[in-house]
Amino acid sequence: MNKHNNIGLLLSCWLGLSAVASDCWAEEDIVWHGFLSQGLMQASKSNFVNDDGDISYRLTEAGINLSYQINPSLRLASQVVYLNGGNRYPEGLRLDYLFLDWSVYTSDNWELRLNLGRFKNYHWLYSSTRDIPHTRPSIVLPQSLYYDAFRDFAKGNDGLAALAQGDSRWGNWELNWSYGTTPIEKALTRTLLGEFATGELEQVFDHQASFYFQPKDSYSQFGIAMVSSDFRYKSGNADFFVDGDAGTRRWIASYKYSAEHWDLSMEAVQEQLTYDNILFPGYYLNTYSQGIYLQGRWFASDALTLLGRIDMADMNKDDRSGAWLEQYSEGRIPRYFGYSDSLTLGMTYLLSENFALQAEVHRVKGTGRLSPAVVPNTAINRSEYWNLWAVQLMYWF
Amino acid sequence: MKTSKYLKLMIGLLLLSLSAAVSASDAEVIVNADSQVLHLSPAQLRRIFTMRQRQWPNGTLIKVFVLPNQNPLHQHFCKSQLNMFPYQLERLWNKLVYSGLSERPVEVYDQQQMLQVIAQTPGAIGYIGKGMDIQDFGVLLITISEDDSNE
User: Fold this and answer.
1) Do B137 and B124 form a contact (C-beta atoms < 8 A)?
2) What is the assigned CATH class of domain A99-120+135-396?
3) pLDDT, tens digit, for every residue of A28-87?
4) What ipTM did this prediction achieve?
5) Across the interface, do B52 and A165 touch by the CB < 8 Å criterion?
6) CB A367 within 8 A of CB A36
7) What residue ranges define each of the domains in chain B, with the CATH number in brackets?
8) Cβ of A179 under 8 Å from any chain B Cβ?
9) d(CA A181, CA A249)
10) FRET partner for A150 with CA separation of 20 to 30 A, picked from A297, B69, B128, B129?
11) Which residue from A minimizes the CA distance to B99?
C-alpha cells in the first residue's frame, strides 16, 4: 500500500469515526479544536531544512482534534495532524493520538487516570504539544532534547499510560508512566540512518516515567523524567546496514519558574546510546551524550513575548570537542558533528485572540543535531557555524 | 474651559480605574445549585480550574466557566484565588486540549452571562464579582478556605 493510500485510509477512518460518534453521542459531549500554521525558514550552510540552503516554505503544521465525553469518567480523544518540516522529519499526515481516557479514581486531593491507545509523550516540558505552534515557545525547539530527527518516536506511543496527580501539604505533584511502542515508517528510518538504509527499523519497547513537583505557594516547578527504549534493525536488499540492535536510556531534569511578566525554563538530559552491529558486523558503541538548555521569556505586553535561549548538546560527554568522532571515522566525519550549541532570539506577537506571528533567529555552532542521525551528511554540512531563521503565522480554534 | 475638560477627563479616568479595581477586588466562586457543594479548599479550586479534577463528589461532571483573559476579574481571580497568572492557565489549557487530556473551560462574555450559564448547567462552576445579586438565579456561593467542613 503506498503512502497516498495510507493517508486516504487514515482520513477515511478518522472521519468515519467522527461521523459515528456524532450520531451516537449528544452534541454537547463532542468538542472540536484545531490549528493551522504556515511559515518560512532558511538554514544556511546546513541541511537542517533542505539540501540547498534556500528559503523554504516547508514549515506547515495543521491539525484537528475531537473528544467525546462518553460518561463522567470515560472520554475518547483523537487528533490528526499534517506536518511538513523539511528535512527535520518525514512530511505527511499522521494519527497523532487516539485513546480512551479513563478516570480510574478521583478524590478531593488526587486523581488517577489511564490512557489506552495512541497517546502523547507527557513526560517532558513541551513533548505533548511539540507540533502545536501556538503552545510552544519557539518554532524550533531546543534540539538538545527535542531533536527533530527523533520526533516521530519521541512524540508518544501505542500502549498504556497512567497519570496521577494531586495535592499535598507540601505542594502539588504529578506522576506519569507509559509503556508502548511506535511504528516506524521507511521515511523515518532514512531520516535516522540515512538514504542508503533499505531495511526496517522497529521499536521493541518504549518505557517512560516522570515526576513533577511544585512546592506550595511557589512559582517554581521541579521535574525528573526517564526514558528506556530498545530498537531492532532488520536489513533489506542491497542494504548499507546490517541486522542489529540499538538502545537508549535517558535521564532528564527540569526546572521552571513562572513570574508575572517573565518565565524561565531549563531541561538537562543525559543519554546512554548503545549500538550492537547495525553499521557493520561486530560494531559496538556505548556512549553518553549530554545536553542542556536555558530559556527565558519576557512578556513585554499582553501581545508581545520576547525569547532568549542557549542550548548545548555534546554527543559524547567524555570528549566534548568531537575529536573522538573524527578519529573513529578516520577523518571522514569532522569533529563539529560531535556537538551542537545554539543561541536563539525570538518573538511571538498575538495578532488577535486566535492568531499569532512567531519569528526567531538561531546561531548554531556544530552539526551534531542534524539528520540523518547515525551516518551524518558530511557533503552538505561543511561549516561548523551556521544560521537559521524562521517566521510562522498561526491560527487556532 | 480647557482646564475643566482635563479635570473631567481625569475624574472620568479615576472613576473608571476605581470601578475596575472594585470589580476586580473580590471574586466569589459560584456553582450550580444541584451540585450541593458549599465549600472547597484552595487546592481543590485550583485543581478544578486547571481541569485536573473533573467530577464532583456526587459523580457529576464538572463544567468550568471563565471570563475572557483580559477581563480584570478573571486576572484577579487567577492571581488571588488560584495563585497563578492568567498566561499560565491559558498555556496549561492549550496543553490539555491539544494533547487530548482534557477540555478547556467555556468562556463567557461577562458576569451576567456567567450567572445564567452556571444556573442552567448541571455541575457548573464559575466566579462573579462580590456583591452581585444572585437571588433570582439557581446558583450557590461557595466558601474557599483550608477549613475542611465540606458541604
Assistant:
1) no
2) mainly beta
3) 678 999 999 999 999 989 999 999 999 999 999 999 999 999 998 999 999 999 999 999
4) 0.88
5) yes
6) no
7) 25-144 (3.40.190.10)
8) no
9) 15
10) A297
11) A128
